[in-house]
Specification:
Length: about 200
C-alpha cells in the first residue's frame, strides 16, 4: 500500500529517474546557484524571478571563465528539483534559454585533449615490465581501453562473449573484430543508458 505523499515529495520512480552520482552533481550546481541568488537578494519565487536569477548567474559564471556546461548542468539541476520548469512542465524560462544559447556561442564546451598513443604505449610497457601475468593483463587492458575508448567500468564488465569476430571476407570493410560494450542480454546499460 503506497503511503500518502506531501505535495512536491518525489515518488520512488521519480527518485530513480537519475543516477545517484548525477543527483549529487545536481545538488552541487543547485547549491551554487541558490547561494548566488541569496547573496544578491534575487528571489526565486516566481518563474520571472527564477529566469532573471539564472541569466544573472550565467553572466557571473561566464565572466569567471566557466564553460557553457555550467549553464547546462545548472538548468538540469533546477529542472530536476522543480519539474514544473522542465520539458513537460508548465513554467518557461525564455531569458534563461536565450542566455544559455549565448553562453554556448561565447564559451563552447571543450573536451580533454587525448593522450598520444606513444604515451599510452609507454605506460603499458612500464606496467608490463612487472613481468607477472597480472602486469601483462593490465598492460593489455590499458591498450584495449585506449584503442576502444572504453570507460573503466566498461572494461571491467567485458566478457569473452562480448568479442565478435570478423564477419566479412579478408580485406573487406567487415573484416574487423567488434566489441559489444553494453549487451542488452545482461541488462547493463551504458553511461548514456543505452544498449548495444
Amino acid at each position: 500500500q503506497p503511503r500518502q505523499r506531501t505535495t512536491g515529495e518525489k515518488t520512488i520512480l521519480e527518485r530513480y529517474a537519475i543516477k545517484d552520482t548525477t543527483r549529487l552533481q545536481y545538488n552541487v550546481y543547485l547549491q551554487a546557484f541558490t547561494t548566488f541568488a541569496s547573496a544578491r537578494d534575487l528571489p526565486l519565487t516566481t518563474a520571472d524571478q527564477v529566469d532573471l536569477a539564472l541569466v544573472e548567474y550565467y553572466d557571473y559564471t561566464f565572466l569567471l571563465g566557466s564553460q557553457s556546461d555550467t549553464a547546462d548542468k545548472t538548468i538540469a539541476a533546477w529542472m530536476n528539483a522543480y519539474p514544473q520548469f522542465g520539458e513537460h512542465g508548465h513554467l518557461r524560462l525564455p531569458r534563461e534559454a536565450r542566455a544559455r544559447q549565448g553562453f554556448h556561442r561565447l564559451a563552447p564546451g571543450c573536451s580533454r585533449a587525448p593522450l598520444a598513443i606513444m604515451i599510452v604505449a609507454a605506460l603499458a610497457m612500464a606496467v608490463a615490465a612487472g613481468r607477472s601475468p597480472a602486469a601483462r593483463e593490465m598492460a593489455l587492458a590499458i591498450i584495449l581501453s585506449f584503442s576502444a575508448y572504453l570507460r573503466p567500468g566498461e572494461l571491467l564488465r567485458l566478457r569473452p562473449s562480448d568479442v565478435v569476430p570478423p564477419t566479412g571476407p579478408k580485406g573487406s570493410p567487415l573484416d574487423v573484430t567488434a566489441i559489444i560494450i553494453s549487451p542488452i542480454e545482461r541488462v547493463e546499460p551504458s553511461k548514456t543508458n543505452t544498449y548495444d
